[in-house]
Each structure stands twice: as structure tokens, then as C-alpha cells.
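Summary for the steering committee. One of the milestones for this cycle was to obtain a three-dimensional model of the protein with guanosine-5'-monophosphate bound, which we needed before selecting residues for the alanine scan. The sequence and ligand used are listed below.
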Amino acid sequence: MQEKGLLIVLSGPSGVGKGTVRKEIFSQQDTSFEYSISMTTRSPREGEVDGVDYFFKTHDEFEKLIEQDKLLEYAKFVGNYYGTPVDYVKETLDQGKDVFLEIEVQGARQVREKFPDGLFIFLVPPSLSELKNRIVTRGTETEDVINNRMSVAKDEIEMMNLYDYVVENDQIQRACERIKAIVVAEHCRRERVEPRYIKMLEVE
Ligand code: 5GP
């Protein structure tokens, strides 16, 4: 039987640059995983192509897909639906290929429940690690701004506990390299490799 591919989920707080990092990864020649094109009800932005960037759907079409259980996960984000087509993901994994999802955090939570042995990567803004330092050294922000920043940062840190790896998006190339290295390492994990060897030694 064909060994299944790995489900890779890249998520993280809004505005961290998930889309930019994902596009960079898929523009690189040596990327060996498949991108799962999402469905959305939002309108195409300039230059976006249906079936390449997203599958653009109407509200009714999207709600029908939900009813028919055609989505692995979905979420409403800034007034629009976004979701991952389940058939593509399952078929591609069954072919032994790795599938890469770039989705927001509510969707990632749903995927974790359905695919607990997926690889979940949380992208964080560099400002998170610099936060305290910046706030303390700059000393120019009002108390309200500081409190707001701290509260956003706290939410972001709390979200991390659902993920296997955390990658700082300090520099796009570096973030991409780290993500690719994580995928390589994940393929070498004993829990993933061992069953293959055990099978090899099985005698009829
Ligand atoms: P944008 O409208 O900027 O392309 O995407 C908005 C947000 O939706 C981003 O955070 C992106 O990661 C997320 N997103 C894109 N596709 C999906 C999807 O299939 N499911 C979920 N849950 N979020 C998605």
C-alpha cells in the first residue's frame, strides 16, 4: 500500500505574512509539496485567478459545500467564508504526496481535530519576540497602546499551544528555509518511519 503524504498546516495570527511566505515557498524549484487551493467567497483581487489563487464561490455555493460536507475545515474571516476542499486533500495524501495548507487559526484548530498527526506550524511576527524590549526601550507609547499590544501578543502566544513548531517571520527567506527544514525533519521522525521498517520485517 502507498504510504500517505504529510499534511502540513501553516497558520498564525492575522497579518503575520502567511500568504507571502507560502507564495515564496511555492515559487521555489525544490518545493516538493502540493498546495491545496482554498475556496472563498471574497472577490478576487487584481491579478488573482480562479483555480490558481482560490476557487471563488458565491455565498450560496459555499454554504452548499458546507452542507455536502465537502470541506475539511472552514471559517468566516472578515465577513467572508474560507475553506479547504476535503477531496483534494485526501486524494493527494493517498497518492503519497505532502499537502500544504495556509489557513487562519480557526481553520487550523478544526484540522488538528481531524488530522491530529498533521504537522502544524505557527508563524509569528518578529515583533512578538522584540515586543518587551521595544516597549521598554522606546518608552514613547501611551499606556493604552502598550496594553493593547500586550493583549494581542498574549492572545498570539496562547494560540501557539495547538502547534508543533513556531517559526518567526523575521525575514521571508529564512522563514521559508525553516519551514522546509521542519518538513524534512518531520519525515525522519521515528514514529513516522518505524512502521515502514516493521512492515518490511513482517513475515507472512
Ligand atoms: P486573504 O483574503 O488575504 O487571501 O486571506 C485571508 C485569511 O484567510 C488569511 O489568513 C489566510 O491564511 C486565510 N485562509 C485562506 N484560505 C483559507 C482556508 O481555506 N481556510 C481558512 N480557515 N483560512 C484560509
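Key point for the committee: Residues 137 and 150 are 15 Å apart (CA to CA).
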